[in-house]
Amino acid sequence: MKGRRADRWCLVLLFLLMIATTVASIRYGAMDFSVHDMAAAAWGKLSGNPNLPLDQRIFIELRVPRAILCLLVGACLGVGGTLMQGLFRNPIVEPGLVGTSSGAAFGAALFYVFGALLKISFGGWTLPLAACAGGVLSTYLVFALAHTRNEGRSSILLLLLTGLAINALFMSGIGFLSYVARDPAARSIIYWNLGTLSGADWNSVLVVGVATFGGLVPAIVLAKPLNALMIGEDEAVALGVNVRRLKWTVLTINVLMVAVATAFTGVISFVGLIVPHILRIIRGPDNRFLILGSSFLGGILLSIADLIARVSLRPAELPIGIVTAVVGVPVFLSLLQSRDYLS
Amino acid sequence: MLTATDLVFRAGRRALIDRISASFEPGRLHLIIGPNGAGKSTFIRLLARLLRPAEGSVLYDGHDVARRNERELAQCRAVLSQAVEVAFSLPVRDLVQMGRYPHFTARPGAGDLQICEEVMQFFDVTDMADRSYGTLSGGEKQRVQFARVLAQIWRPLGDATRILFLDEPLTFLDIRHQIDFMEKVRTFASQKDVVVVGVVHDLNLAAHFADRLILLDRARILADGATREVLTEEHLRTAFAVAPVLLTNPVNGRVHLAFEAGVPPEDLKPVEG
Fold first, then answer.
1. Of A19, A53, A340, B165, which residue is the least packed, with the fewest Cβ within 10 Å?
2. Model confidence at A252: pLDDT above 80
3. Which pLDDT does position A148 carry in this prediction?
4. Interface list for B 42-81 with A (CB within 8 A)
5. How far is it, in rounded angstroms, from Cα B167 to Cα B176?
6. What is the pTM of this model?
7. What does the alpha-carbon distance between residue B14 and residue B101 come to, in Å, rounded to a whole number?
8. What is the mean pLDDT of residues B52-78?
9. Average pLDDT value for residue range A275-303
10. Is the separation of the CB atoms in B159 and B122 below 8 Å?
11. Distance separating alpha carbons of residues A64 and A55, to the nearest angstrom
């Protein structure tokens, strides 16, 4: 099939582009590194030199994990968006619209305000765990409430409106928490809501990496049944797809990827929406290409956004959620205008 | 061989299918007719296992379908419904290939691709194989969907009977395409290992093509048999509350219906019982 071969070339191209943006992303920032500096730092680390110069340590312990985290989080959001759009047969769905991100943000806000009071702590894992729990809870609420008695189908409009309501509920919860919180906590909440990768370290890379690959591998296997779902639920059943099981698997993978990614970086909107859309324009809606492709393109776009966030206000940083929203909102609006997606 | 025994399906307390039993033989074209709300669609969806009955069972070749897994079932059973909405616009060839999904795991084999080409030829859609589904006309779309559905059960399976369900496939088609479709269905249904059961709205079309008619009325079978036994004045009055005029089609000698308008409702009183 010539179509499949072109898909493969497109994936290779996306992969190379991802490597290129990653190199750019570790090179530039508050401090620029030459290729020579980077090589020296990498060599110093690999040879086990305990007394690396400060700039080289910054490079190894902050810049590189941040670039990798960017790729992983971008992949999570991109794949999450592709899966959700496939499941709901609608290109305006993104994980944030069904509550996952605002729930995760609420969980994180709870941690910032009450974490110190409660004696429960899992060390560095407490924040991600709280955010994950929030994300799972809000997503579950949205789906439970959007479930109609009509043969268990969630109508897209009902789902979006329920998502809107639940989002508002959790956002007001976040608002309340940041209102009652004292200053360091309050600022953390606001900062986290705008999304930032400044907390990146090797530990977060490890956790998000496990979630990314743990979600991506089963997601690729779901490509075929998701394709069948494009022509309708009954048709997918007639083609031998267990639609019920497919739904639960997709939702589980999506919550795993998006909640874990959001837990470490805060709320980054619109990436999950735009990535699958761009790929569909380039190569069509075949999920066998889309799922892997969106993991690459998600990483690429988020790396570029993070680069913009870091260099535009040097030496200060812009929250990355602002960058993605500024770029994402016009794309989203033009999408809404170009076709009737709310049926 | 397809057998349904004592099927019951309810929506709330109302029975949409009220204890229906029927069996369908290979090599023949079975068409289900009946007024709106009689349960035709529900019946065919139960037979195809798109719905699960509250009571009763459906057997394909003597095996209860309730116990088969989705994919196994999809290898021998295909369903064409009236209007398929495709969420994202695909190339026609990819859509037809979906029909082979139950038969391959990761990617289609040479045999699968060969079948797709044959089916596209049969439905005369080879020319549009590379076009995007969204750009096709209503009739072309339905032909592509039919090609996809038949790709699923195009080749004989050895011991298992292939079963094709049609749920009002002719809606939105003009008369030429309706006839063309039915001719193709009849050709396909004439194979010795193929059972075809369809719901058709147009009574004359049903009379023209069916080997056997099943008339549903109010969740039950009112009449079942050859065209002349089913399309009687009494049955039509009971089921549809119309005054039929039974004619004979001079071309094929089959029943042809016309209807008398302006008959007062009390004269159309269905025969209760």
1. A340
2. yes
3. 62
4. 45, 48, 50, 69-75, 77-79, 81
5. 19
6. 0.87
7. 37
8. 93
9. 91
10. no
11. 12
Interface-testing mutation among A8, A237, A283, with chain B (most B C-beta atoms within 10 A): A237
Chain A residue numbers with beta carbons less than 8 Å from the beta carbon of B87 are: 89-90, 229-231, 285
Identify all chain A residues contacting B50, using CB atoms and an 8 Å cutoff: 234, 237-238
**B194-199, strands of its sheet edge to edge:** B77-80, B162-167, B194-199, B29-33, B212-217, B220-225
Tokens of B234: 């009494």
Task: Return all residues near B198 (Cβ < 8 A) that are at least 6 apart.
Answer: B29, B30, B31, B32, B44, B164, B165, B166, B167, B169, B185
pLDDT of residue A19: 93
What is the separation, in whole angstroms, between the first and last Cα of chain A? Answer: 34
Residue A78 structure tokens: 């991109």
Report how far residue B183's alpha carbon sits from residue A306's, in angstroms, rounded to the nearest whole number: 61
Residue in this structure with the two tokens 């709280």, named with its chain if needed: A130
* Token pair of A94 as six digits: 């993104």
User: Looking at the predicted structure, is the pLDDT value of residue B69 above 80?
Assistant: yes
Quote the mean pLDDT of chain A: 84
Distance in angstroms (rounded) separating the CA atoms of residues B31 and B200: 7
- A283 exposure class (CB count in 10 Å sphere: 0-12, 13-18, 19+): middle
Contact between A80 and A258 under an 8 Å Cβ cutoff? The reply is yes
User: Are the beta carbons of B212 and B218 closer than 8 angstroms?
Assistant: no
Chain-centre distance for alpha carbon A280: 18
ipTM metric: 0.88
